Amino acid sequence: MNGWKHICSLEDIPVLGARIVRRSGLPDIALFRNGKNQVFALEDQCPHKKGPLSQGIVTADAVTCPLHGWKIRLESGQAAEPDVGCVPHYPVRIETGEIFIHF
Predict the structure, then answer these.
(1) Class assignment of domain 4-102?
(2) Is this prediction's pTM over 0.90?
(3) Who's near 44: CB < 8 A, 6+ residues apart?
(4) DSSP assignment letter at 34
(5) Which own/partner contact pairs does 30-34 have at CB distance under 8 Å and 24+ positions apart?
């Protein structure tokens, strides 16, 4: 069943941090919150060596993979140059402090 799914409250994700959304039989999704309280959802695997992006360092617009330092753009899932690759990203909406993902 696809559609918008309620995940958690905005306050459940630390500023400049992440939270994992587990999915049965599918790759996990990592939710990232930047310093502007924007939330982004990416598959929790770096396109390089499948490092856990949820354990990376979050900035205003990217997360750095903890394994080899690749920077992945939060909005698009695209690796920053000179690296090449992309991780699936998912639409997110916030309503009255509650986070929903579309997958």
Answers:
(1) mainly beta
(2) yes
(3) 20, 27, 28, 29, 30, 52, 53, 54
(4) -
(5) 30/54, 30/63, 31/7, 31/92, 31/99, 31/101, 32/58, 32/63, 32/74, 33/58, 34/58, 34/59, 34/60, 34/61, 34/74
Closest CA to 3 of 81, 80, 101: 101
pLDDT in tens, 22-49: 999 999 999 999 999 999 999 999 999 9
Binned average pLDDT, 10 residues per bin, the chain of 103 residues:
88 97 96 97 97 97 97 98 97 97 92
Domain assignments of the chain as residue spans, ordered by start: 4-102
Which pLDDT score is estimated for 1? Answer: 46
Measure the CA–CA gap between 91 and 89, rounded to whole angstroms.
7
